[in-house]
Amino acid sequence: MKSGFRNRALFAVPIVVTAVAVLAVSARKPEITLRMSQAELQDRIKAKFPVEQSAFPLTVVYSDPEVSLDPVGNRIKIGLSASATLLSGRIAKGRLEGDTTVRYEPDRAALFFDDASFSRLEIEGVPEDVLKPLLPIAGRLVHDRLDSVAVYRLNADDLRHNVARAVLKDVDIEDGSVKFVLGVP
What's this model's pTM, rounded to 2 decimal places? Predict the structure, then answer.
């Protein structure tokens, strides 16, 4: 009689262990990790430029975006060529530089550039006192342009993407790419 109970107990142990394992795995909050290279980010930005800004006494065209990744500051650095047409008709070359990060919009199931800030505008032959008031205007113009760039859209047909689309949990720059972790809070 004891052996019958013992056989049933031995048979039940694997079932209980399997059930506990299934519950433990299903209790984990689903998340998905996406990676984008510097080149992929640059391709996303490139489609939004050139853009022109007119502010007396200059007309400036911002073009040729260059992206670099800053793992220390955990930011995406952006540099743009600036070509200014001066009152004299002369064209002067320069550069606008800043950085940005990424935000997630769950209702659109997409990652967008966000919080772009620009700290430097240089144009050859244009005095700093003329450029200084243009920096915030240039920054806003480029910020608005970047703000509309979808870095990545989740695939509605991918079940993992649907489950993990609640929040952006983490953004890290590592190994020459940007890592996005999305999931349930």
Answer: 0.73
